[in-house]
Design goal:
This protein is α/β, with parallel strands linked by helices and 305 residues long. Helix content is 54%, strand content 11%. It contains 14 helices and six strands. A six-stranded mixed sheet has the order 4-3-5-2-1-6, with helices on both faces. The longest helix has 30 residues.
Amino acid sequence: MMSCLTHQRLAALRRTAILVLVLGALTLAATSTIARAQSRSFLWKASNSQGSLYLVGSVHMLSKDFYPLNPVLDAAFKESDLLVEELDLGEMMAPDAQMAMLTRGMLPAGQTLDTTLSHETLTLVQRQAAALGLPVEPLKRFKPWALALTLLGMAWQKAGFEADLGLDKHFYDRAKAERKPVKGLETVAFQISRFDDMSMPDQDKLLQQSMREIESETTMIGTLATAWKNGDTATIERIVLQDVSNDPLMYRRLIVDRNQTWLPVLEGLTARPHPAFVVVGAAHLVGPSGLLAQLKAKGYTIEQR
């Protein structure tokens, strides 16, 4: 039985299904100094002889303090005639997709995390549930990956950040209001598969690592979001590359492989008469495997706005 937390967990899964994909992994513990001028944003224009597109690095959960957005983001959005995001949020918010996320995130009937997780990981989960004021028993019905995403999302919410204020949702709502077409690079089912196809030992590792670092991450969320707001690429890249060293296989699964799949799609968008406005997780843009470096290597002119 799921108790009264069923609807709460469903909402949390809906809001956090792509949260980890914003930053590339669940290991975002770092301290750094904001160094870039506030006139910069986390927006780039990629151009070649065919045309151009805008690439925006997103934080999927923000607070009201980050609005209004930098005017250059609004100007680029107005110039574009197509919004492209990791997935079409209309698909994610559909009732069948929400049910699929909940169903895929649950352990088989009769199975709980008591018999699935290592003792060490289960202890960390119990500690974090207590810190968030949640009864632990209903949480034991979730698969480790789903529980990691849910608790991480709640930590962000506790720090004052909301999915409804995230950049993806902001521009999706604007596109719908302005009748601008929306395209998803992936489906909900594919994004869930990035986690659900992991072996149980790997899911245990993912959950344990996220529980160990959730407290330090909560304290640096503001620093991370401010770096994004200021277009501070160096700070975001430093965090992402730390993730690479912590778990290179997860980084490849969540960032590198998906970037390689997206790249030809993005290149095709430059052949259109007007730019597309592409919003993806910030970690997908930076570093040697990032979309910006790969497009530059293909001869595109990359300009930060």
